[in-house]
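User: Could you go from structure to sequence for me? I need the amino acid at each position, not a summary. Structure tokens:
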């Protein structure tokens, strides 16, 4: 059953693969924030940092295994590059999240959903064009 699902996912267009992996990472991110804020009483911005780290594992694994697997970028290259892309995306995420929370006074959960969607476009382009781009041998 898992093998059949994996094969179906591999046949999807790359954009849909990115959405599937990114959606899984975003759902993980949101769930961790909700658990830490609602369950542990943690401040939303701090919870967002911890949720980012958990979601990064889901994101990198999914993109390396599925979305950008055809690039065949070695993990020694792709992992640090994607971490830099993810950190840049997260910095943008945190800035936009702060603005939504403190300037627009939106609910923390809806703010995070909106921010994650906006930042996804940057992440896709940077991951495809740089992080998972296979370097030509020297």
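Assistant: Here is the amino acid at each position, in order:
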């Amino acid at each position: 059953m898992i093998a059949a699902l994996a094969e179906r996912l591999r046949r999807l267009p790359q954009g849909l693969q990115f959405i599937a992996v990114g959606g899984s990472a975003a759902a993980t991110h949101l769930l961790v924030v909700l658990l830490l804020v609602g369950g542990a009483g943690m401040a939303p911005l701090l919870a967002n940092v911890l949720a980012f780290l958990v979601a990064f594992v889901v994101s990198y694994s999914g993109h390396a295994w599925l979305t950008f697997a055809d690039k065949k970028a070695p993990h020694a290259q792709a992992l640090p590059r994607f971490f830099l892309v993810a950190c840049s995306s997260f910095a943008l995420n945190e800035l936009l999240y702060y603005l939504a929370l403190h300037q627009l006074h939106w609910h923390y959960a809806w703010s995070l959903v909106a921010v994650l969607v906006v930042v996804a476009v940057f992440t896709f382009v940077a991951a495809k064009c740089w992080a998972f781009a296979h370097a030509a041998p020297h």
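One structural detail worth keeping in mind: The CA atoms of residues 9 and 20 lie 9 Å apart.
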